[in-house]
Amino acid sequence: MQLTLFPHLKLSNDELIASFSENSNWQESPIRYLCWHSHADKFAIALKDDTIRIHYNDNELVPMLKHKLQRNVTMMSWKPLSASTLAVGTQTAVLVWNIDPTSLSTRPSSGAVQVLSHAGHSPVTSIGWNPRGLDLLFTTSTLSSAIVVWNVSMKQSQVIQHVTACGGISRLLFSPDGNKVITTTPSSSFRVFETATWTNERWSKLAGRVQSSCWNPSGTLLLFALYRDPRIYSLTFSDSSSFDQPVLDGPKHASVILDLTPDDEREHESSNVISPSNIIHSICVDPTGERLAVMFGRDDPRCHLVAVYALASDPVVSVTPSGFIHGPVEAIPTFITFKPNVKKGALLTICYSNGHVGYIPMYFKAANQLNRSKILTPLKSFSMKDIDQNQSMWSKSQNNSLLVS
Asked: Signal peptide span per the entry (predicted)?
């Protein structure tokens, strides 16, 4: 009966990870995941050969992380307020690396890594540090209903919550202020927890499972997209900083803020018909909360593009088209993320199916510096050729991309 209700339980480990990965082609792509550090100018990049490399902006030294248990990397996360601690989710466990940024060694020893494993909790499909910098690491698995929290220094684990009757937990994502966390599942429901007491609100009877989700910087706006659904939805919450104790006050129903149904299909499909292929694979909001990037599914005709929108949340949530990003010829985007801590505007990072990493700077003034009506100025559509004419602030090569061999 469980296999009937939750078909993902029949998948192999590789198929399971690929089905719920933020990477649209996890099994074949040379790059499986990329994670920027929250305040330092460096990122970790996980490759198909199960190695992880650390790239610095001001240092040509590239440390490589390799371990016998580091197989099928699913996700990575730098510890907040730490310059050297990187958590890695894998097929069997969580590896916590300590990479000394001043070391001249390119191969950290096995003594630089901790292995954390919890019975019945694999593959580890999602990890997240406590945003306030505490030594607490939260992990979930698509085959387990438990939210496990680790005291990393003590190597002690505890199940803090169970999300039952949904087949597991596909992803856990904290709001930037740390007061809320969304847990998505392989079923047509998700929950938002308030982290002071771990009470939760549940949204169910969705048209499908949550494919991708993201918070705005204040934690007052949650955006999410559903599998095989061309629309992006929003939920708004009160600002937790205005209360003595964090509270959950989400609306009962989500609002549609963007419909990406192709024009040629819009006339033939009713709003309740789900597409046979996935439309939206990933969405992410930049650290200013004013740009939204959308990566399409591999089977969508727009899979070679990344769409960029201007996002406003005050007084009402609205999106305005800004343009499309065209990547290298015969390559499609497989992973997108914004760099934290950009002084002016935003920096979108795109990993491509041919092993290139593209950096797309977006220059705009923050909402507190301009009238809101002047911010949402549409940008032109641009391509990698246009980007190549400008000097990249991160790339060492002439074509503004990092080629991973």
From this structure: none
Cβ density class 126-161: b for 16+ within 10 Å, e for less: bbbbbbeeeebbbbbbbbbbbbbbbebeeeebeeeb
Edge-to-edge strand list for the sheet holding 75-78: 75-78, 85-89, 94-98, 113-116
Instruction: Answer yes or no: are the C-beta atoms of 55 and 62 closer than 8 Å.
Output: yes
- Encode pLDDT of 284-328 as tens digits: 999 999 999 999 999 999 999 999 999 998 888 999 999 999 999
Q: Can you give the pTM of this predicted structure?
A: 0.88
Which residue from 15, 31, 114 is spatially nearest to 357, judged by alpha carbons? 31
Report how far Cα 139 is from the mean position of its chain's Cα atoms: 15
Q: Is residue 313 a contact partner of residue 291, using CB atoms and an 8 Å limit?
A: no
Tokens standing for residue 25: 């082609």
Q: Do residues 86 and 78 make contact, with C-beta atoms less than 8 angstroms apart?
A: yes
- Helix and strand numbers (H, E) in the chain are 5, 29
